[in-house]
Amino acid sequence: MARAVTRQHKTIATAAAWVVALLIFFPILYTVITSFKTEQEAIQGFSLIPSGTFENYVEVEAQRGYFHFFLNSVILSVGSTVLALIVAVPAAWAMAFNPTKRTKDILMWMLSTKMMPAVAVLFPIYLIFRDAGLLDSRVGLTVMLMLINLPIVIWMLYTYFREIPGEILEAARMDGASLWNEIIYVLTPMAIPGIASTMLLNIILAWNEAFWTIRLTTTNAAPLTAFISSFSSPQGLFWAKLSAASTLAIAPILIMGWFSQRQLVRGLTFGAVK
Amino acid sequence: MGEITLRGVHKAFGATTIIPNIDLDIADGEFVVFVGPSGCGKSTLLRLIAGLEDVTRGTISIDGRDVTNEAPAKRKLAMVFQSYALYPHMTVARNIAFPLKMAGESPDVIQRKVQEAARVLNLTNYLDRRPGQLSGGQRQRVAIGRAIVRQPSAFLFDEPLSNLDAALRGTMRLEISELHNQLKTTMIYVTHDQVEAMTMADKIVVLNAGNVEQVGSPLDLYRSPQNLFVAGFIGSPKMNLIEGAPAARHHAKTIGVRPEHMTVSTTAGEWRATVSVAEHLGADTFLHVHADGVGPLTVRAGGDVAVNHGDTIFVTPDATKIHRFGNDGKAI
């Protein structure tokens, strides 16, 4: 009896999971389908069968130069991630292995900055960027993306480092390792899975960031988020082209996420289960 | 050389004092065991010697050199941790080689010393494996191998056998003792297991609440405990501590009689007792009895004693082996 109930529960849970997954995935699927429709088909109403045209992709690349935006997205997301790691690895190491009474407060303060609505600081940051000549520059935007994601990167690395037994680092110290040797030969190799999943997540966050990338750029440093938004013009919406642009924008990160999903899931659930 | 001297060592974490004040001399080549109940400060004391914790006050010297403020790496000590603390991403060979690499030894020397350590510790067939692929005993050997290749002034062991099962613990205990006989290097060994302390040590340091209760050879401590704590801690089963009229007859507040220093008779004796539990171990029988006017006692009798639960017996302590303690708990 108990077994039958369990099996029934399992079936219901599996079905519910599929329904939720399809609901979440449907907008992406419909965007891809729409990208293969003509503009006329796209505005005609709900339909899951496109005519299969590639003209939207050809036009999107020909008119707006997809590759330029794609390159900017790569530079901004990878650049901001590398910068964030350079700052976050020593910071997380210090907080994980040499905590003080205030470490928890600092971590909470860093996290609290993520709770602030970005629009609240839009004006001062815009003015700073304008006065520093950083508007529409890759350097300025890379630093901006690094700063907004830094709290999450430090938190994730801190959680990873905390899982590394302190005795192993003490053993390295007893074995004659200096601080740098301890970090290079012992800590980093043990933390590589954690660093890798933090990197992946930060690349995705930076890739998808749309608030600052749209407001602080025009053409030079504009990434794919700005590319998509450029299809929403005052003359009207071009749904099929917009869908093709969106598909092109999300495809690289979707492919990367697909191949690295094991690392990502491990990164997001790390510390939750022993 | 590995002569270690502690003078006025005090350790506190914030307002909590862990070690009030310790003076201790450890001679070169000695096997010293720090023993005491959980939380007595024995591991902290070892970590102070290792340099993994800073002393709040006092000095620590190794071979006459003050190392109180020196980093662990510069003290020329090697440590074996309770959790083994092996590097999980390195093979056994690389684990053992790590301290030599940090010391800047040449690859030839590293190779030779790793092979030699592996031979001594029966690890030659496992050099290419990672710690995760080894049994508990093999991991412990790797940890020891990593310690011996450095040829340190002294070895520090922090409860190294507590994660092993009973049979393996016995084997490893012997191996560590043999290693000490071969190397003749100073060893400081922390344990809460008084059997390990008795069987391995040249000198035992009994600790309680951060204080040294007594220092001496295992048999000194067994034969002449200086206070009630040591009397109760050293020896298995524990010494029987008796207060009241039986103690007063010996002009003491408390008297102590070891279970093996009492004789059992079914007909006559000093204390009449009822058997609560009889543990027949083959060679020995441990009788847990309740003696009239004395209280609960543990008695060690021969393996062939035919006594069971509920039987009445007579117990007689060996008058020459009775330990007497005063009101302050110290031996008289």
Structure characterization notes:
Chain A has 274 residues and is an all-alpha fold. Helices cover 76% and strands 1% of the residues of chain A. Chain A has helices spanning 2-35, 39-44, 55-64, 66-97, 103-112, 122-131, 138-163, 166-174, 179-208, 211-215, 224-229, 239-259, 261-269, and strands spanning 232-233, 236-237. Chain A has a two-stranded antiparallel sheet with strand order 1-2. In chain A, helix 4 runs antiparallel to helix 9 (179-208). Chain A is globular, with a radius of gyration of 23 Å. In chain A, 31% of the residues are buried. Chain B is built from 9 helices and 18 strands. In chain B, helix 2 (92-102) crosses helix 3 (107-120) and helix 2 runs parallel beside helix 4 (136-148). By secondary structure, chain B is of the alpha+beta class. Chain B has a 6-stranded mixed β-sheet with strand order 6-7-8-3-9-10, with helices on both faces. A 5-stranded antiparallel β-sheet of chain B has the order 13-17-14-15-16, with no helix packed on it. Chain B has a 4-stranded antiparallel β-sheet with strand order 2-1-4-5, with helices on one face. The longest helix of chain B is centred in the middle third of the chain and has 18 residues, at 166-183. Chain B has helices spanning 42-50, 92-102, 107-120, 136-148, 166-183, 194-200, 218-223, 228-233, 245-248, and strands at 4-13, 16-26, 31-35, 57-62, 65-66, 77-80, 154-158, 186-191, 203-208, 211-216, 240-243, 254-257, 262-265, 271-280, 284-291, 295-302, 312-317, 323-325. The radius of gyration of chain B is 23 Å and the shape is globular. Chains A and B meet through helix 8 and helix 9 of A and strand 6 and helix 2 of B.
Summary of the model, kept short:
The complex is a heterodimer of chains A (274) and B (332). Chain A has 274 residues and is mostly helical.
